[in-house]
Amino acid sequence: MMGGRTGEEIWTIAESTEHGINPISLEVIWRGLQLREKLSNARLITVVLGAGVGDDGLAMVASAGVDEVVCVEHEKLGHFLPENHAAVLVDLIERRRPAIVLAAATTYGRTLLPYAAAKLYAGLTADCTALDIDQETCNLLQIRPAIGGNILATIETPVARPQMATVRPHSSPTPDPVDRPHAVVNREVADERLLTSLVRFTGSENLPGDEVSLANADRIVAGGRGLKKPENFRLVGDLAELLGAAVGASREAVDRGWISYPHQVGLSGKTVAPELYVAVGISGTIQHLAGMQTAHSIVAINNDPDAQIFEVADLAIQGDLFTVVPLLCERLANRRGAGNE
Amino acid sequence: MKILVAVKQVPETSKVTLDEKTGTMIREGVTSIVNPLDLYAVEKALEVKETAGGEITVLSMGPPGAERAIRECLAMGCDTGVLISDRKYRGSDTWSTSYVISQAISKLGQFDLLLFGERATDGDTGQVGPGVASFLGLPVLTYVADLAIVGARVQARRLVETGYENYTAPMPVVATVVKEIAVPRLPTLRGKQSSRKAKITMWDNDRIGADGSRLGLDGSPTRVVRIIRPKVAREGTRVIVKNEQTALGAVDQIMEFLEKRGVVETE
Ligand SMILES: Cc1cc2nc3c(=O)[nH]c(=O)nc-3n(C[C@H](O)[C@H](O)[C@H](O)COP(=O)(O)OP(=O)(O)OC[C@H]3O[C@@H](n4cnc5c(N)ncnc54)[C@H](O)[C@@H]3O)c2cc1C
Ligand SMILES: Cc1cc2nc3c(=O)[nH]c(=O)nc-3n(C[C@H](O)[C@H](O)[C@H](O)COP(=O)(O)OP(=O)(O)OC[C@H]3O[C@@H](n4cnc5c(N)ncnc54)[C@H](O)[C@@H]3O)c2cc1C
Fold first, then answer.
1. Could A315 and B237 be called an inter-chain contact, meaning their C-beta atoms sit closer than 8 Å?
2. B178-231 pLDDT, tens digit each
3. How far is B27 from chain A (nearest CA, A)?
4. Largest Cα–Cα distance of chain B, in whole Å?
5. Would you call A205 and B232 a contact, using CB atoms and an 8 Å cutoff?
6. Which residue is closest to B92 within chain A, CA to CA?
7. Residue A83 shares a structural domain with residue A130
8. Which stretches does DSSP call E strand in B134-222?
9. Are A248 and A294 in a shared domain?
10. Which pLDDT score, from 0 to 100, does residue B42 have?
11. Spatial CA neighbour of A33 closest among A15, A47, A46, A20
């Protein structure tokens, strides 16, 4: 066990949504637990900002093994107005001076943290895929892909505090719940004077069920120009459905109007790191790889022996997708049918 | 309506080299372009100008050569260009970059709408837009997929993980935009010609007056301490499908793979 100043605090930010705490927040807690191991005497604290945050959500956070849960509430924190959320977070940070503050690299974390970091003169590293502690300095080592995934940079914040980072969703497991959570749960009401945002939330539209959020998906089946026609893109949807996966796409497929932009994976689309990524008729240009090469398992189906996608594939199926995918769907459907008997 | 668009010049290919010691990019000898994701912001600015009227200022922070990126935006139809450039800015992290850009914006005067790209394709943090908004004390709308001016307010649709969220905000406001917001136009021949002659304002730190202890490598809170080029190649298994028979074999292999990785249950 290495040193670390007494009582140093490691914070993770949990996202409160209308459906409870975002499960991605647990991955960030897992990162915090790893760091707590490496910094003796450090305490792990999870901060939740919102309105009407349920007890069960906080209990879930507590049972992940943190030492304290701080929940700050106000109706003006109910929707994500970055100015209000950041003002409350900055105020908390100034009062308690944590050494480390982590959040998920979601649209929430990637907005809240830079807004707060600017006010604090804090270093902030984006979209980290690994975190560690430097043995000598006890500084946080933040490892992140940049330049379209071509390099991995290790970034440190030597002096400024707190050391802040966002963590790429699905780059970490979630902690096993502990038997007897010991966390103190502190609820407070936000100071109204901090909540000055003049932005108003006017409503939301959830993507239809079959358009499960790519960023949160454990499995993704993505299709590219190899599908050739809009109607063929259904093959991707069929396979995704059978695998319980979300549908992704290359830019070529999106630009041709076969599927909408929220499904685009890559440099100018989403960065994903699911358990399983199946690339169907996608060549694997550097811009596409930038968005998916940290997936845990990659299966690629492509009839070009030299397709670049094969370089990152764990399983490379070199052949006609119009032969392979229907047969695979049939097999999965049979399997499912058999399972239901 | 006064509109500001912040654009970054980035290396064209992904084959950039890095100074292993400082972790900063070596830009010499690499073709540079306007960050592709900033073109969506430029296009949106032009569309807003077409409907609501106004003037568009393009601002970039970078080496003197970043002037070219600004001219490209002028060729598309933006009105004026400002380049902020100083050796002192070299190696600035997102905190420092946001700080300097916000200082320059304050000096330029009041803007109603400030547009940023979602992220730059090189540094790839997406932190500068929200950072600048914070320094200026302005509200920020991030990941904006649609935006309209309605009276004195901006209506925006944010693309988030679960779908879209709608907001209205008073101006001035900062927005970072995603690709879905617009289809960038190509510069016209006339635009190209006049952009070549356009005068671009060049400001260094003496003009901007940002705190000298907060600039560049030394003034930045973060430091790149190590860079590696990860080997992306995996030791994959190759299965070649030639006909229906080998296709069935391939399906067996896929099923086995999915079972091993726990995606489907073992039979
Ligand atoms: C700034 C910038 C940003 C970009 N951002 C993105 C991004 O975010 N996401 C993205 O995906 N791209 C992006 N691109 C575009 C990228 O460079 C490629 O053009 C795109 O990824 C190619 O899509 P694709 O693989 O579907 O098409 P193609 O490259 O045309 O590949 C189609 C593949 O299908 C295979 N195929 C054809 N027929 C069959 C068949 N019957 N069976 C099996 N395989 C078959 C072919 O062998 C080929 O490999 C970006 C480009 C730039 C310049
Ligand atoms: C490998 C590597 C990793 C890095 N990681 C980090 C990190 O984790 N944290 C950190 O603080 N710094 C980091 N940096 C430094 C960072 O890249 C620079 O500060 C850079 O100037 C701005 O960040 P960005 O490229 O990520 O821009 P982004 O924040 O992604 O840019 C978003 C938008 O802001 C605007 N914008 C950005 N830069 C400019 C500009 N110069 N002029 C005009 N408009 C601009 C554009 O509209 C752009 O679309 C890293 C640098 C390298 C080389």
1. yes
2. 999 999 999 999 999 999 999 999 999 999 999 999 999 999 999 999 988 776
3. 13
4. 73
5. no
6. A123
7. yes
8. 140-150, 153-160, 163-170, 173-177, 200-203
9. yes
10. 98
11. A46
pTM above 0.90, yes or no: no
Looking at residue A3, its pLDDT comes to: 42
What is the Å distance from ligand 1's center to A169 Cα? 24
Please report whether residue A186 resides in a domain.
Answer: yes
Nearest of A46, A77, A52 to residue A192 by alpha carbon: A77
Let me know whether A33 and A180 are in one domain: yes
Same domain, A66 and A151: yes
Look up the CATH number of the domain holding residue A312. Answer: 3.40.50.1220
From the CB of A263, is ligand 1 less than 6 Å away? no
Which residues of chain A, if any, have pLDDT below 50? 1-5, 341
A262 and A177 in a single domain? The answer is no
- What pLDDT score was predicted for residue B46? 98
Question: Quick check: is A235 in a domain?
Answer: yes
* Domain match, A24 and A170 both: yes
- Best residue for ligand 1 mutational test, from A235, A302, A312 (most atoms within 8 Å of Cβ): A302
Q: Which two tokens stand for residue A196?
A: 């000055």
Counting the structural domains of chain A, the total is 2
- Do the domain assignments include residue A203? no
How large is the average pLDDT for residues B244-265? 93
Residue numbers of the domain that contains A278: 219-337
Q: From the CB of B216, is ligand 2 less than 6 Å away?
A: no
Q: Find out whether the beta carbon of B100 lies less than 6 Å from any atom of ligand 2.
A: no
Among A160, A324, A338, select the one facing B247 at the smallest CB separation: A324
Q: Could you say which DSSP state residue B103 is in? A: H
User: Per the CB < 8 Å rule, is A148 touching B14?
Assistant: yes
Predicted-complex ipTM score: 0.91
To the question of domain B2-214 being in CATH 3.40.50.2020, the answer is no
Q: Does A112 lie in the same domain as A172?
A: yes
Q: Do B95 and A122 touch (CB under 8 A)?
A: yes
Residue numbers in A near B180 (CB within 8 A): 261-262
- Same domain? For A146 and A226 the reply is no
| d(C-alpha B229, C-alpha A211), whole Å | 34
